[in-house]
Write a structure and sequence with these properties.
This protein is an all-alpha fold and about 220 residues long. It contains 11 helices and no strands. Helix 5 crosses helix 11 (about 185-205) and helix 6 packs antiparallel against helix 7. The two termini are about 15 Å apart. The relative contact order is 0.15.
């Protein structure tokens, strides 16, 4: 994407209503609740098998498989938002972006870890700043470093509100975990749906064609 279009990200309004974003995300969840839950059950099953039988390879799962799996929620949210029909295989669309997603996941985790190890605050800053990195890679068609950097630049403009959002999302998933883990079937998909809703609201004018809504990136 042209630098001129990307620079518009530094001029669009960055304000968002957290409560309204959750309401919109809940509507996205309800519209395909069964499929969301079924897909989340698959993710939990895979993670459970890895922990039980090959725990020493958990880091490989987290680095090379999880990013594409989790991104399925973003792609399905995009289809729902655009009024397109959704089928279960749509959740596996993240594997079309497997290489950049793995790169974004690995590099961002390394930089966040280094920041936490160094002075803590830089790590927290980057953890918040990279919330949109995968979305930038998928829907913006950006390379690994550009996706991370434009996510950071955009979020830094309203960093404290995104920090509050991240704390809410973490608390929501901790609550879901406390509910015998069953709550994760809702809270985990909702995490990605909330991020998608906010990302779409903030970037659709930049990542759209004639303002029609963000697309599926370079492969759309």
């Amino acid at each position: 994407m042209e630098a001129e279009r990307l620079n518009k990200l530094l001029t669009v309004s960055i304000d968002f209503d957290i409560k309204e974003s959750f309401v919109k995300a809940w509507e996205l969840f309800k519209s395909q609740a069964l499929l969301h839950v079924m897909y989340m059950l698959l993710i939990l099953s895979i993670q459970g098998l890895v922990v039980i039988y090959v725990q020493e390879y958990m880091i490989i799962y987290s680095a090379f498989l999880a990013p594409a799996l989790y991104s399925g929620f973003f792609l399905v949210a995009n289809k729902i938002s655009r009024g397109e029909p959704v089928i279960y295989p749509d959740y596996f669309g993240g594997f079309r972006f497997w290489l950049p997603l793995v790169g974004i996941s690995l590099l961002s985790q390394v930089l966040v870890a280094l920041g936490l190890f160094a002075l803590v605050i830089p790590g927290v800053y980057l953890a918040v700043g990279y919330l949109f990195a995968m979305l930038m890679g998928i829907f913006g068609g950006l390379d690994v470093w550009s996706a991370m950097e434009w996510s950071r630049k955009l979020i830094t403009r309203n960093w404290w509100q995104f920090f509050a959002l991240l704390m809410i999302l973490i608390a929501m998933n901790l609550l879901g975990l406390l509910l015998a883990g069953i709550g994760l079937l809702v809270s985990f998909p909702m995490t990605f749906l909330v991020l998608y809703v906010i990302f779409e609201d903030l970037t659709q004018e930049v990542f759209s064609e004639e303002g029609a809504g963000i697309t599926h990136g370079p492969e759309a």
